[in-house]
Amino acid sequence: PMIQEEEVRDLLAQLDTHKSMGPDGIHPRVLKELADVLSKPPPIIFQPSWLIGEVPLDWRLADVVPIYKKGCREDPGNYRPVSLTSVPGKVMEQVILSAIMKHMQENQVI
């Protein structure tokens, strides 16, 4: 299916600005505030990625950050790893998920 600019704009406008940015340094607040302008280029990137089944290398990278759970802060076992990935990559994931879910519903797979 063709990736629609409106769908990308809606997803960008819904981004949580309190989330962290990934290794690409693109903060969700920037994408959200500029959703009208930035919704044009992603379909150009997302569509070929969807068709060939490959994700841009930068979107496969993650910054792994230790998040404290509880107990002694000096004990490494009291931390859990959280992977911070690319926000545009997450938007593309949502576009693909939406297309798959729509296909499954239209074909009564679920």
TrEMBL record:
Keywords of this entry: Nucleotidyltransferase, RNA-directed DNA polymerase, Transferase
Keyword Nucleotidyltransferase recorded: yes
GO molecular function terms attached to this record: RNA-directed DNA polymerase activity
GO cellular component terms given for this protein: extracellular matrix
Coiled coil: none
A Gene Ontology BP annotation from the UniProt entry: cell adhesion involved in heart morphogenesis
UniProt KW Transferase keyword: yes
Source superkingdom: Eukaryota
Matching PANTHER family: REVERSE TRANSCRIPTASE DOMAIN-CONTAINING PROTEIN, TRANSCRIPTASE, PUTATIVE-RELATED-RELATED
Protein name stated in the entry: RNA-directed DNA polymerase from mobile element jockey
Source species of the chain: Cuculus canorus
